[in-house]
Specification:
- By secondary structure, this protein is α/β, with parallel strands linked by helices.
- Strands 5-6-7 form a 3-stranded mixed β-sheet. Strands 8-9-10 form a 3-stranded mixed β-sheet. The chain has a two-stranded antiparallel ribbon with strand order 1-2.
- α1 packs across α3 and α5 crosses α10.
- It is flat and about 55 Å long.
- The two termini are about 40 Å apart.
Length: about 260
C-alpha cells in the first residue's frame, strides 16, 4: 500500500507534483453530494484530471530539496510548508528519494546519543512537547464524513476515537479513508465503528505526558508510527504527540 504517487511530466521530462491521500480527501469533501462524479473520477479519469481538480481545491506547490541539501533544511521545509513528505530531486529532474519525518527520526535514532543529550531525559510535560489543549477527538458513532471534515478544518492527519467516558479505543487516520474508497463507499456516511472493520486491525499506541522524550522517540521510531495518544491513568485522552511536534521542538531549541 502506498499513500502517494509522484507525477512525471513526459513533455517537461521532470517531476511536477505529487498525488496524495490529502488530494483524495479534498475531492471526497467537495463532491460529497455527487458520488457518481467521484465514481467516474476514480474509474475513468486520468491522473492529470485528478491533479487539475486537486489544484483547484487546494493550493499545490511542489516543495523539494536537492541531494546536496542538508537534512536540517529538510526539517525546516517540512515544518514551513506543513507537508508530510519531501522529494529529493536532481537538477536534471530525476526523483531520488522521498524524505519523511519518519525517515529523519530513524536516522536520528541511529546516530544520536540519547544518554549524553540532556533534554532526551526530560519528560514531554517538562519540555512542553505535544498538543494538550483543544485536542480533536471523535466517537465510534460519528460518520467518516464528519471525521474527514475534522481533518480538513483543523489540519490534523488523525484523530483519537474515544468512548463515552473519554477513553481512547482507536485512532482513525487520513489513510484509513482509502479502505472505504476501495470498497466503493464514496459518500462516507458509515460510522467510524463500521469503517474500522474494513482496515487491518492495528494497535493503539499511547504514552503519558511524563514519558521521557528519549523513550517516546525510540517508541515512535521502533513502531514506525507517526504519533502517540497521550493518556492519563484511566486511559482518558490528554493530548497527542507527533513526530512533527518533536522536530518543531528541535527547531525551537536549535542551540540546546
Amino acid at each position: 500500500d502506498i499513500s502517494f504517487a509522484s507525477l512525471w511530466d513526459s513533455t517537461k521530462g521532470e517531476i511536477v507534483g505529487m498525488l496524495t491521500v490529502t488530494d483524495l480527501i479534498a475531492i471526497l469533501l467537495y463532491y460529497h453530494d455527487k458520488t457518481s462524479v467521484i465514481k467516474d473520477l476514480i474509474a475513468k479519469e486520468s491522473v492529470r484530471k485528478w491533479r487539475e481538480i486537486g489544484g483547484r481545491l487546494r493550493r499545490q506547490q511542489l516543495v523539494n530539496v536537492g541531494p546536496e541539501d542538508s537534512l536540517w533544511n529538510s526539517v525546516v521545509l517540512l515544518k514551513q510548508h506543513k507537508i508530510h513528505r519531501l522529494p529529493v530531486i536532481t537538477k536534471g529532474g530525476a526523483l531520488l528519494h522521498i524524505i519523511t519525518h519518519s525517515h529523519l527520526l530513524a536516522y536520528m535514532c541511529s546516530f544520536l546519543s540519547f544518554e549524553t543529550t540532556e533534554f532526551f531525559n526530560h519528560s514531554l510535560d517538562t519540555l512542553s512537547i505535544g498538543t494538550y489543549s483543544n485536542v480533536i477527538t471523535a466517537k465510534s458513532t460519528d460518520t467518516v464524513y464528519h471525521v474527514i471534515e475534522l481533518f480538513s478544518q483543523h489540519g490534523v492527519s488523525a484523530v483519537p476515537i474515544v468512548d463515552e467516558d473519554g477513553s481512547v479505543v482507536d485512532v482513525y487516520s487520513r489513510y484509513d479513508v482509502v479502505y472505504l474508497v476501495r470498497e466503493g463507499d464514496y459518500a462516507l456516511n458509515c460510522t467510524i465503528e463500521d469503517a474500522l472493520k474494513t482496515r487491518p486491525k492495528s494497535t493503539v499506541f499511547t504514552c503519558t505526558r511524563y514519558e521521557t522524550l528519549g523513550r517516546v522517540v525510540r517508541h515512535l521510531s521502533k513502531s514506525r508510527i507517526h504519533r502517540l495518544v497521550i493518556v492519563d491513568e484511566q486511559n482518558h485522552v490528554e493530548g497527542v504527540v507527533s513526530i512533527s511536534d518533536i522536530f518543531s521542538f528541535f527547531m525551537e531549541n536549535a542551540e540546546v
